[in-house]
Amino acid sequence: MSAEAGEGREAAGAHEAREKRIARLTRELIEVLGEDPEREGLVRTPERVARVWTDLTRGYRATVPEVVNGALFDAKGSEMVIVRDVEVMSLCEHHLLPWYGRAHVAYLPKKQIIGLSKIARLADLFAHRLQVQERFTTQLASAVDEVLDPWGVGVVVEARHMCMMMRGVEKAHSLTTTSSLIGKFSEDPRTRSEFLSLISNRMSA
Ligand SMILES: [Zn+2]
Prior knowledge:
two-stranded antiparallel sheet; GTP Cyclohydrolase I, domain 2; 8 helices; binds zinc ion; five-stranded mixed sheet; alpha+beta
């Protein structure tokens, strides 16, 4: 688990104080659930939980410019750029349980393109926060739009939500699909259908 850009700037004691507080709360949660926080298997759980939760929410301690970090290049043409199957792992803000899936991100360059790995890093930035899938999708599309000022952006996210699966609210394998379309992807049906047909062979796989 690597430290993301941004965490390095945090005041020296803040990181430690947060982990101590999460550990304290976790110990209390274990007790409330009817368990013995001192039994062998659980005695170090609060500290483990504190480290994991700090990492899984590192998106609160970084910004879009820090993630992009200048990895922009002059566009050679205006062909659609598509990044498929970006892994997304996040936590739902309603139940604090994981939701996970894939994002497909496309844009029509105007002046600049972005390093492909940065799209995945931007997805991580927003996924490592307490989220709903709809807002994640919109935030990712808006970030690409703001960073590149392209002719348009399209983002489709397919995900499964543990809070639904574990509670039997929906069939265990049902996918939730969300999309955010900006500029030409919203205005031009040909751009939109090109995008959707380019990702459709990958969807629901
Ligand atoms: Zn939920």
